[in-house]
Structures are given as structure tokens and as C-alpha cells.
Amino acid sequence: MSMHEHLQWMEQALVLADRAAEQGEVPVGALVVRDGQVLGRGWNRVIGDADPTAHAEIIALRDAASTEGNYRLPGATLYVTLEPCSMCAGALVHARIALLVFAAREPRAGVICSQCALLESPWYNHRVRWEEGVLAEESSRRLQAFFRARRS
Q1: CA distances in angstroms from 94 to 14, 40, 100, listed in the order given
Q2: Is the pLDDT assigned to residue 14 strictly greater than 80?
């Protein structure tokens, strides 16, 4: 995919992150795309749904799987505004996502490159390629503003 396409999809993920923030959730948004079509959208909903698994990536994967009628999403790309945690990284493998594109690193709990390289683990039977940094500054600004407002 071209950088233009990555920017286009990540901009949509940032809009979903804004939706999360409006609902008092950590501003993370995600979408699943294949062949130029959005299959699933998600934003953090852990508080509103009282569900510890309701991360943006999981919601987007659930939406895409429902759209496709299949839990496997071969050839799909997941765009997310923040580096995934271990739960979400595992879900990407199980869903057979081809490519992960994330905006900002998550230095405390990110497992793609910040704390470890979980997707490179030899025991997984599927490899998810990944790219980082698409609109990272925009995503970081949203996260910083959200947590600054929460502390005050």
C-alpha cells in the first residue's frame, strides 16, 4: 500500500479515537481494511461496555469478522492509533491479519516493538507484518491531551 493510502486510513482511525475520547475512553481508534474497503471499525469502549477486552483493535476485528462471516481476515490490514498490547497482538495473529499499521508507540505496554517483539515469536503459526509511525504525532497529541485533562 502507498503512504497516501496509509494516511487516508489512519486519518479515519484518528476520527474513531476522537469518538472514544468523547465517551471518556482512552482515545484509540482502529479499522480493518481489505481491497480498499473498510470491513470493521472500533474505538476503545472498555469503560462504557464494562469489558476489559473492548480495546479498539478487538472491536474492529469483531466488526470485520461479523461483516465477513468469518473470524479469519486474510489479506486485511488493521490500522490503529496506538501500538497494540499483548491481547490485541494475539488477536491479530488469530484473525490472520496480513499487515498492522500503527501510529504511536506505547512505551509501557506496546508489544510490537516497545516492550518486546511479540509478533516475531517463533511459536506463532502466522506472521503479521507491521509498520509504525503513520500520523504518530497526531495520535500522541490526542493521548497527551486526554491524560492531561484527566489529571486536572
Answers
A1: 25, 16, 13
A2: yes
